[in-house]
Amino acid sequence: YAAFTPLRASSRLSSGINAEYGGHNGAIWDMAVTTDSLMLVTASADQSSIIWDTETGKILQTLSAKSPVRSCGFSLTNNILCITTDRAMNQPCFIKFYDMRDSDQLVNNEPFREIEMTDAKVNRMIWGTVEDYIITGHENGQLCQYDWKTGERLKTVHDHDNLIKDLQLSKDRTMLVTASKDTTAKLFDAKDFKQLKSFKTDRPVNSAAVSPLKHHILLGGGQEAMEVTTSHTKSGKFEARFFHLIFEEEIGRVKGHFGPINTLAFHPSGKQYSSGAEDGYVRIHDFDQSYYDFEYDF
């Protein structure tokens, strides 16, 4: 790969805070907004999920659980909210569904459907290509589809050897990229779960994203967070890494963080990406002209 000569990004940090959402008493592990951006939902280690008014930060509803809430997300129509809870504190892992149109379900904290996980717990959850199913990534590397209307498990593949840390869809929602502790990211057909590509690294992959503009996959991760203080930044391998989606080869890296990257996201235009890391920083990266001019030689 080129050391980001053909692919160059500049990063900027901002200390300006436009709004804060105060309400959780523990780590926030996941968040999602409605398609109209009017509501935000968060999943927290404090055994709760909170629904917020995005603009004002006002708490609209708090959903309590008997164990930490690991992931959350709204359906495409914003009508159904799904949350998943951890297997902890003598409680099993659950997938729970709430109808946002039924205020009684939210006020009384009574989901219309619960699916108990009898094997590996859910670590990540997103809604699928259409509103008929959700996609779950599990601690043992399984990738599953569940029908929220019936609770039936529709599909299961086991192409990862360890914990799935992240799930993201492509802009057209036809492809799914997974990030795993087994040091790989994989690209699947989002509907039938056929594995299309595999991107191999030498470190745990915590997050992966598909560019909406170019045939690029962005990966981030690094050395385990608990070991960060004992090693140099270079040995921790905290760069964001770009791979060619079709040829599966690494084509560039961006340095900047001095802790494991935990989350990555492309701007909808594909002209920026953001990265959040264990070092406490969120970096917004702007691509310069050489990024758009770069063509892969084959």
Highlighted features:
298 residues; 4-stranded antiparallel β-sheet; 5% helix; globular
Topology summary:
Blueprint (H helix, E strand, L loop, with lengths): L8 E4 L15 E6 L5 E6 L3 E6 L5 E6 L4 E6 L5 E6 L7 E7 L3 H5 L5 E5 L4 E6 L5 E6 L4 E5 L5 E5 L6 E6 L5 E6 L3 E6 L5 E6 L4 E6 L5 E6 L11 H4 L3 E5 L5 E5 L6 E6 L5 E6 L4 E6 L1 H5 L5
Antiparallel strand pairs: 1-24, 2-3, 3-4, 4-5, 6-7, 7-8, 8-9, 10-11, 11-12, 12-13, 14-15, 15-16, 16-17, 18-19, 19-20, 20-21, 22-23, 23-24
The structure class reads mainly beta
What is the H/E order? EEEEEEEEHEEEEEEEEEEEHEEEEEH
Strand content: over 45%
Average pLDDT reading: 92
Q: Could you describe the largest sheet, including whether it forms a barrel?
A: 4 strands, antiparallel
- Spatial strand sequence of the major β-sheet: 1-24-23-22
The count of β-strands is 24
How many individual helices? 3
Uncertain parts:
1-7
Helix content: under 10%
Structural account:
The chain has about 300 residues and is mostly beta strands. The chain has three helices and 24 strands. The chain has helices at about 105, 235, 290-295, and strands at about 10, 30-35, 40-45, 50-55, 60-65, 70-75, 80-85, 95-100, 115, 120-125, 135-140, 145, 155, 165-170, 175-180, 185-190, 195-200, 205-210, 215-220, 240-245, 250-255, 260-265, 270-275, 280-285. Strands 1-24-23-22 form a four-stranded antiparallel beta sheet. A four-stranded antiparallel beta sheet has the order 2-3-4-5, with no helix packed on it. A hairpin with a 5-residue loop joins strand 6 (about 70-75) and strand 7 (about 80-85).
